[in-house]
Every structure is written in structure tokens, then in C-alpha cells.
Design goal:
The complex is a heterotrimer of chains A (324), B (317) and C (551). By secondary structure, chain A is α/β, with parallel strands linked by helices. Chain A has 13 helices and 14 strands. In chain A, helix 3 runs parallel beside helix 5. With 317 residues, chain B is α/β, with parallel strands linked by helices. Chain B has twelve helices and seven strands. Chain B has a five-stranded parallel beta sheet with strand order 1-2-3-7-6, with helices on both faces. A two-stranded antiparallel ribbon of chain B has the order 4-5. The N and C termini of chain B lie far apart (44 Å). Chain C has 551 residues and is α+β, with helices and mostly antiparallel strands. Chain C has a six-stranded mixed beta sheet with strand order 9-18-17-16-12-15. Chain C starts with a strand and ends with a strand. In chain C, helix 6 packs across helix 7, helix 6 crosses helix 8 and helix 9 crosses helix 10. The chains are: A alpha/beta (324), B alpha/beta (317), C alpha+beta (551).
Chain lengths: 324, 317, 551
Amino acid sequence: MRTITYAQGIKEAIEEEMRRDQTVILYGEDVANFGGIFRITAGLKEQFGDERVFDTPISENAFVGAGVGAALTGLRPIVELQFADFLFTAGDEIVLKAGMWRYGHGGAYKVPLVVRCPSGAAGVGPEHGQCPEAFFMHAPGLRIVTPSTPADAKGLLKAAIRDDNPVLYFEHKLLYATKGEIPDDPDYIVPLGKAAIRREGDALTLVAYSAMVPKALAAAERLAREGHEVEVIDPRSLNPFDRPAIIESVKKTGKIVVAEETYKTLGVGAEIGAMLLEEALEYLDRPLKRVAMPDVPVPTSTVLEKFVIPSEEKIYAACRELLS
Amino acid sequence: MDKNLALDIYKKVILSRRLEERIAELIKAGQVGGFMHPGVGQEALQCAAIAALRKDDYMLYAHRGVAYWVARGIPLEKVLCDLACKEGGTNRGKGGVMRVVYPQLGVLGESGTLGGCFPIATGAGLSIKVKGEDKVVLCFFGDGTSNRGTFHESANFCAVRKLPVIFLCENNGWAVSMPTERSTAVKDIAERAKGYAMPGKVIDGNDVDQVYDAVSEAIARARKGEGPSLIEAKTYRLWGHWIGDPESYRSREEVEKHWRRDPISMLEHKLMEQKILTEALKQQAEADAKTQIDRAVEFMQKQPFPKPETALEDLYA
Amino acid sequence: MPFVIQMPKLGHTMTEGTVLKWHKREGETISLGESILQVETDKAEVEVESPTAGVLARRIADEGEVVQVGEPLGEIAQEGEHLMASAPRAAKAAPPTQPPAAAAAPMAPRPGAPALGRRVLASPRAKRLAAERGVDLASVGGSGPDGMITEDDVRAAAAGGAAHQGGAAAPSPPQAAAAQAHAAPAGPLAPARREKLTRVQFVGARNLTRSWSEVPHFVQMVRVDMSRALDARRSLAAGGTKVSVTDIILMATVLALKENPRVNASYSEGEMLIYDRINLGVAVDAPDGLLVPVIHDAQTLDLGGLSSRSAAIAERARKRQLAPADLEMATFTVSNLGAYGVENGTPVIFAPQAALMFVGAIRDEVLAIDGRAEVRPAMQIAIAYDHRGIDGATASRFTTKVKALLEAPDFLGVSTALNQAAAGRHRDVLVEAIGDSMRTSISYLGHRWSLDGEDATGPDPVSSFLGALGSCLLMSLGVAARVRKIQLGRASVHATANEKGHVKEIQVELKVETGADDERLHKLVEVAERGCHIRQLIRDEVSVAMTVARI
């Protein structure tokens, strides 16, 4: 086992896969010469050359769509967006092209594309600070992963690169510097569609993904000191979505809180709520609680941002309310 | 142009036109549920351009007619089954005739949104370059579509990275009801090439020699690694935007005027003058076309619709 | 028709059981009497045997499932029948061969489910649990939001509503409660671990809660001088009869109950139900918790019988071999805390019994005996009574009777004089006449001596007797002095008898050489007199005038 940062996990995954498979390429704005604005990919251009690691003009439509075209014709491109929000800029290319090309053409092609999307509020305002996973969870054809630890950052990215489907890889900006242990296995893969139970418990089910996970665990620790063992589930993938893991947990606990850093209406919590109504109604002892942003954009001011972004305190309070 | 090549193009042009006519009949008779954007008037352009491709080159077509597929060699049966959204086509009823796909001949498919082709073509070009191949990508598009942002981003991107993409604009004067001069700032779309530091050429899209030569030249450039080219082929959309289009946005006179430049007439005239085409060969071509089309229609009519539950298939690899 | 195995009623008060383990799978053959599953009642784990031979057609109840008495557990297809395919649970048909006690399909509303049409605010999970446990939601209070009935509410209701008997006396709740109150934390308090109550403990907990809240308790306490009881026990042991102190206490209890039948009773709605049978519950520390096996009909047992029954049930309790019947129908319970060193306690009655007795450890204590401080082995007893049917006077009679019996345990059939060396010893003294019977030869344990009515060859009987008296007194004096660490030098007795045919009066002059003062000396003599067997023998018959003088 080694300790690395989440950012290193991403870089290692790219490096290893590019070495392993010549058809893997990486491009985006500022990723080659500068190593990316978050400096994740520094040194890769030197390692793999300009043909496979290069910078693009500010042309999200072109280069995201080109990712699709390249994936159709034998490459496995990793396209780095500077911000997850730019998925909307290249909305057609993501939802209609990447997500639907295979289906619309009757399965004649596959689209082994990875789009890396730095997400999360970090004092950067409404169009650079979203966690827009839920929008794309609704779109058919797009796999979505949301690693919360360095080990998962690496394992899920490797899995995403090897997956023959388009994968939106959401890397939360505030997690880049976090550290964690990772196995030495050079083929360390975390499969898509498998949730991780970060903490076992029987008092309440707490579902959290991406940067909400550390907050959820902190809230769970507080609750443990008060005698409540909360089960924290990190789905890790939103497509495929490990519904059984959540339902099994709710069968045990009867209570559930979902924490997500996105607008409340029709967020992942809404999908979970619907799922529980459909499949686990008789196991619920309390109503669902969602800890999410209000339906407003992410404000730039830290004071305002702090007000809207779900915090450990808010997660704790929601759990507390159900447990009393 | 080589005699045989010319004849071959001619046969394909005839076949395309007759197929187009037959499809219109089928649609008007309610025998197929799909819709069609007929490419009547643009067959020579499409057939001549595609004739310049190698079998392993990639192609992205527009929505204007059937000639792309006829020219490329996709069996008519498949085209008709896709039109009818039945089994036996190329996309299992999922995409209709707007998504005829044929990987074995590099036909990548079609974007439902106009202009979706440009980034895809760019990506195919990227793929060729990274793998060190000498294939090319031929990307058809209409005049209206060239106003999409994706065109400009992709043209720039291809030029910057010298990708082997041939941007072939079929300027038929109309984007549904919008005449080109009212939507496009430049008179000739080929002028835009300058903005992207690539060669731009205007040609008569109804002249097979001009088309074939220009496209061949662009292909040669691309294969050498010299990057993309823009070709604007002036032509005319003889039929409406779709089968059943009342065409209230343009005058009959205008349309009549362009019928006089029907590419089939032009081609027949040229080839007969060059003694490549004879009346007999012409009859033969028509007869062959009819036979092929009849056979294909019969095949299509016998095909079943896909089973309903297959709607859930073909999403994920 | 398939034979339906139902949850059996394994105790008078049993209402439900938990399926622990199936021994047979569906489709397996079963022979008559074979054990097919194991269930847990609130008192014991019991095997359910098949009353018929056949094949287990269907397992209806799952392992871990709680099933009401009379509800189906499984179906056995008997010879000749074909096995029916397992139907979905919701569609189960009523067991046809059984009387309709179980009502219709098991998944139909159980007794206690809310009547159709009546809306109750309960969480889905709570509703599910209520249906499973046969809890009537209409009777459950809701602690959730808007008064919603939650899972916890249903669990609490299910626990409170069931059987009376079972479980065991708990250590005094006030002490336990006080301990918790003192532990009230300033900050959050989290358990280091959790220990789920066993079923026995859990049922006990709920029963005790009811007792504590419904029965007005009062407690009487006495201190018992156990010296004679312990002496008696030693004598019995020396004679080959082994009994425990508990056995002696139990025997005393039974006798006291016989004399005070109102304590061997139950309060019920304005009446005291008084029982002829004395079923003694005896608390035993078993692996699963404190159990109270019952010695039924103790009123018919003598000490030996009581002792062996007591030992037997304690053994069975330790080996988890108690049957439900062993734990039922106690009329009075004894709990011996002495084993744990506890001196006293405030018992919790086990409703519907009317009383419960704690017995503390036996410790040497300084007691006031006849105005003097003496060290005695003492034991404290605390008896809690149901004040609804038993008043202080009634209770006092019982309490003091127990004390009296233990302090003078004549019921043990053993003399309890202090010097036990000779007590209980069977004396075989052989007296033979010599010649014309004016002389006798006496032999005892290899000793031989003779007596002569004419004082020629030996002393006459009366003189011999006086010598025995004197000897006995001196011996007694010696023992008493040693016990009190009083130095004695010489001592002699001069005994004379006045007679005119019979001995009517004996004068004893005791001379003692000692440094002890008069008071101590007189005390010593008093003790010696009491301890002298001969002196005691003639105590009521002949007057003995004792004078003491110093040498």
C-alpha cells in the first residue's frame, strides 16, 4: 500500500493506461504544455509525445465531438474539460453524440470515450462550480463515476478508460489534494456500478458521493459518539447505479439521508426517493431526508457559497432529526 | 476522367435518382412510415465525390438524398429497410434512414443535429493522424449547416493540427425555406477557408469532372499530411426539403430554371458527346436500376419490424 | 390433505415463539416423532416434533420469524399425497385439518391488525412489524413526527403486551437506577459495545417492568442468627446427611408458608388467590441469565426431598435443560444473594406472586444475646410483599416465622446444643447385671466399669451420677473458659444429693481458681451450666443449687 493524493491517482491512472494501450490519448485546454490548470497531467506530454498528449483551442464542441469521432474510429480518447460546467457548452456532443451514437446506429459502433470533468464549488462561481452529475444521470447512454478517494480516483479512471462506453468522470476540485492509501497492484481497477460502504452501521443509511463523502463520514463520527452507528454508502458510480446496495441498507436501518452537492430538485436524492417508494416502502420508518443545495446557482462569494453548499453540520442535523 | 469510372458514376447517378423517385412513391402511398430529405439534383455531386474515395476512407454524409449510400456501395435493401425502420437495415430500426451506417466502408453514420458531423469528422481525422494512417475523412454538409459554430471550431481545429478532413459543402441554395444569401454573410462559403488557413474552392456541383477533380486534389493533400480543405460545390435542391414539402417559400420559375441544369441531363449529354454513353447503355442502366430497386423494395416489404423489446438493446457496449 | 404443523403452546402463558432453526428442507422425509425444527419461547429452546410421518411439503415460517401460538409453521404431506407446488406467501390457504383458531390465511390480518377502514398514522416499517407481531396499531402510542407510530413504538408495545410468568428476579432496580442517574453525562455518552438481551432476559425485563409499575411493594427485613442452623448442618453432615444452607432456608420457608397461607397467594382484582400448593421458585444463575426454576409441591417434601430437588433443578438450569414446565407456576420465590457476598437488598416481586425473599450472605456479626455482645454468624433477609393483599401484620408474622425457624431449626431434627461432639451420636451403653443384680457391669466403647448398690466394689448409681454431673460441669467450664480465653487453674466440684428415697435436690459447690473477676467468673459458670449435658438433662426435674467459690 502507498499513500498518494487524489490528483496523483488520476495521473497514475492515465499514465498506466497510456503505457498499456497505444490508442489512449489525452487532450484538452492547457493539459499538455502546462499540465492542466489543476496541474494534474504535468509531464505526460513529455512522456508520451505531442501526438498523444496535446492542447486544444477553446473549442469544446469541436474537441468533445472529436472525442466521439476518434472513439468511433479506433482511439480511446480522454478529453479533459477545464470545468464540469462545460459539459453544457458541449451538450450536444455529450448527450446526443456520445450518449446516443451507438444506440441510434443500432449498435454498429461503440464510443470508448472518457470526459474528465472537474466539479464542485470552490469560490469559482455559478458556471465553474457545479456538480452537474444529476443532469447527465438522466441521459441514457452515459456512464458516470464520482470517485471520492485517491484509490477510487485511480481505480475508477482506469476502469473508465477500459470501458467501451462513454464515461463522464467527475473529479471534485476540493478532493485533488486529499490523501489516501492505494494498493500497489498495477492493475488496480474499481469496477463501475459498485457502491462502497464507507462505514457500517444500523441506525440510519447515509448516501453521499464525491466531496460529500468526507463530510458524511465526519457527521457519522459525531453521531457514533452519541451512540448511533450510521451506515455511509458512497455509490461511486451514478450510472450504473448500485440500487441494491442502498435498498439493502435501508432494509436494515429504516431511515435514509442523501447528501449531494447539487440543486435539490431532481437531484440524485430524488431518484433515490423514487426508488425507495417503488422498492422499499415497507422498510421505511421515517421520511427520506435530502441534504442538497437550494435551487440556486453556486454564488461566488465564499460567504454565500458556504450558505448554500451542504456542510457536515447540515448532514449531521438531518441525521439527528431522523434519529430522535 | 477514366471512361469506366465515368460510366460507373453515371449508373450510380441513375440508380440514385430512380431510387429517390421510388421512395417518394412509397412514402406518398403510405407504404413506409419514414421520411426522406430527397437529394434530387445533387446526385452527380455526391456520386462523383465519393468515387474519389478509397474503400478504407471515412465518410460523413448529410441528409440530402440516397446517392451517398448508393455511391458508396451500401446495398439498397439495407437503405430501404432503414427507411421503413424494419429489420434488415443497418441500424435495427433505431435511427431510420437518417442514420444509415456502414462501418465496413467507413460510413460513420449521421448526426441528428445539423453540424454534428464536423466534430465527428475532426475526431476521425485525429484518429487517422495518431495512428499514422493515410486515410481521409470526407465530410458532406449543406450551406445552412456551415453557419453552425461546430463548423468553425472544427475547421480551425483540423487546420491547426493538419487533420486529413475534406469539408465538402453542397451549396444547394436552400436551408429548408431559408435561401443561402439571407443566412450567410459571405457570398461563397469557400471564402471561409481563408479564415482557417486552408485551401477553399468553389466548383460547379453538377459537373462530375469538377467535383471529382477537386475532391481528388483535396484527398491527395490530406493523404500527404498537408491538412484539411474546403470545397464549395454549387448545386440546387430540385425537390422540396422533404417529401410532401409544399415549397411555398420559392417560385416555380426558379425551380424550373434549375431543372434545366438537372445533373442527369448534363451528365448524359456530356457522356454521350464523349461517346462513353450510348442509348443502349442508358436503357441498360435504367433497366438495371429498376431491377435492383424492385428487388430491394420486395426485400424490404417482406422484412419484419424489430421486436418491441429490442428497444432496450444497443445502448451500452 | 397436508398436515399443518403449528406453533405449539409450550407453556400456559406462551403466546408466541421464534423459529430458531429448521432441521428439515422442503421435500425431505420425516418420520413420526422426528424433530423438524427448533423454536424459542420466552423461557426455553424447544424442539418441535412431527406428529406424523411424511414429507416436509412446505416451510411456511422462516428462521428468525416470530409466530403466534397456533399459527402454521409448515406443511407435511402424508403418504399418498402429492406435494403441492409452493404457492406465493400471500396466497396461502387456511390449514384445513385444524380448528379455526388460526383463522384464515396466515397473511390475512393477524389478531391485532387495525380494522379495515380505520386509518392509523404509522410508518410503513411499523405497520409491517405490527402485522408480524400481531400488535394492534390502534393500541400503540406514536412517538414519531406528528404522533406517527414508529418501529420502536411497535417493538415496545409487543414487548409489554405478552406473558406474565418467566424471567427472574432482578437485583434491586432502585440501586440500578441510581447508578444510571449518577452516570448522567455532561457530554455525549456512547456505549463501548452493546449486549443484546437474551430472550430470557428480555422477557424478564418486561415482566419486571410490569411488576415494578403495577404492584405496590413494601419490604420487611430481619437479621437471623444462623449459629444453630449452621451447627445443625454440620451435625447432619457428620451423620452422613449433606444439605446446603439454601436447603435449610427453603425448608424453613416452606414451613413458614404453611403457617401463613396468605403469603402463598396472588392478588387478582380484589381477591387473594390462595394456593395449597407451595411451588418454590429458586433463583439460579444460568448461562443465559438469572433463571427461576420451580420446585413444585414443596409442601410434600421433607428436607432430603427438598434438597435433592433443589440440586436437580440447579443442575438442569446450568445445562440449559430446563423444560418450560420447570419455570412455571411458582407461588413464592427465593433468591440467595449470599453467594455473591451481598448482605441485603430490596427485592422486586415476580407478579403474580405475592412476595419474594432475598437471602443475604452469612457474616460474623456482633449480636446482642441476652444483653451481651456476642459474635454470631448472621444473615439478613429481605422479603418484599404485594401490599394490595398483604398488610404489615400478615407480613410480619411470616417474616418473623422464617427468622424463628432458622434460629431454632428443630425441624431439622437435630439437637442444637453448642457442644456437638457428642450430639447425634448414637450411644450404645451396655449394662449387665453381675450376680444378684446389686452390681452391674457397664461397657461403652471398650471402656468397662462397674457400679455396686452397696458401695463395696464400686460406687452406687447415684454417686456415679453425681460424679458425672460434676465431671460434666467441670468439662463444660473448661471449654467455656478456653473459648473466652479465661485462665483457669484448678477447679473442683463438690456435689451432694439429698435423698429420701429419690434425689430431690442436688447441691453443687464449684470451686474455681482463676484470675477472672467475679462478673466474668459468674458468666463463665452460667455458660458452663448451660453447656453441661447432664445439667441440662435434669434441668426440669431436679433442682440444683450451685454455689461458686474461689480457690
